[in-house]
Q: What sequence folds into this?
């Protein structure tokens, strides 16, 4: 491939591929902060059930506390 062919290929590629926009239209961080403030973190019933199950397990089998701590 000579230099003229390489220039032709480069010119064809420039026409075929549009330049990418590198600037954002707006700042996304304030929008993200508003979304985080809208919905407080909700603790579902399943989370409370798992906590209760863990506490019951520790009360009935206190020897398993080191095993549970090991797996954390």
A:
């Amino acid at each position: 491939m000579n230099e003229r062919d390489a220039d032709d290929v480069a010119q064809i590629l420039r026409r075929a591929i549009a330049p990418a926009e590198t600037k954002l239209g707006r700042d996304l961080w304030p929008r993200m902060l508003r979304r985080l403030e809208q919905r407080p973190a909700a603790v579902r019933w399943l989370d409370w059930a798992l906590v209760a199950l863990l506490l019951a397990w520790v009360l009935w089998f206190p020897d398993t506390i080191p095993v549970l701590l090991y797996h954390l």
Remarks:
- Residues 46 and 67 are 23 Å apart (CA to CA).
- The mean pLDDT is 86.
- The radius of gyration is 30 Å.
